[in-house]
Amino acid sequence: MASSSASPAPAPAGESLRQKRILSSKLYLEVPSSKVPVVYSPAYDISFLGLEKLVRATPLCRHPFDSAKWGRICRYLTREGHLEKKQVVEPLEACKEDLLVVHTEAYLNSLKCSFRVASIVEVPPVSLVPNWIVQKKLLYPFRKQVGGSILSAKLALERGWAINVGGGFHHCSAEEGGGFCAYADISLCIQFAFVRLNISRLLIIDLDAHQGNGHEKDFANDGRVYILDMYNAGIYPFDFTAKQYIDQKVELASGTKTDEYLELLDKALEVCKSRFQPQLIVYNAGTDILDGDPLGRLKISPEGVITRDEKVFRFAKDQNIPLLMLTSGGYMKSSARVIADSIINLANKNLIELGSQLG
Fold first, then answer.
1. Mean of all residue pLDDT scores within the chain
2. Which residues form the Histone deacetylase domain (predicted)?
3. Is 82 one of the annotated active-site residues of the chain?
4. Catalytic pick from 82, 103, 171, 210?
5. What is the DSSP string of 118-175?
């Protein structure tokens, strides 16, 4: 019989290196109490030699997006007096050592090829742009958003909630990007939380219109992570391998309307509550479920999106579970307004406290 005082087995070499990278990272900033746990940087917005306008205007580009969505959300909140600019938390950029916590060296090296980045973001003209420009104008904003997602987990645990006005790149896994997702910010923020926040039970609620195949592959058979994914089964990514790693999936049909959607969400959250007791929730709150979104193909009203977010925040608050929200997909100009209105509603319902409420 082994002695009860025997030392625990050492961590595998790869896991040990991961922990070292996490512990030496500078992304977990100390945030003064005068700031609100709303994370954003002007660097989130993408201004790419006019290509962001081309994306919306030409059939050459298969992935429409509003490259200024993140900034417009914050401008709505600040201009209308709900939040002060000085109270917003600005994250650091995730550096290579941070990204290697999840990503392989080979994958990160592949992003030095503009053609590879173009295929990931589904914008073919990007392949013609020198890679140093792609790094500065496209991948740097993404890396800032990754830093925001990682920091948001720390803030959520400290304050009870946090919103990264960006992130939610749920199609990217450790070794493969896709669907406009070049870095696996969800997987990264969770790995940081395991080590730095001493979290061992984490729930992902993924309500983007698309299946979150990236984080599903990264946490395949990892009992510490429970995944609730509610998505349109008739659209990208059709990742049948990743589906087997979803703990609780709710597959929707194209054209699903608001009332049915919210009813299914209520049932899913009830089941989730009985199956798993997390210490932290990562909420991927894509607005591509909106009626008219060219990629989501669902028919959820703006009011339905606002109610959806309220239900998730209330689910977390009723159980006293810290929650971080990522804004994820949403490909119409109206998305920014709906997200801002949802954040305002969360404040009005006392589910969060914005800057205007702190004075």
1. 92
2. 63-344
3. no
4. 171
5. HHHHT-GGGGGS-HHHHIIIIIHHHHHHHHHHHHHHHHHHHHSEEEESS---TT--SS
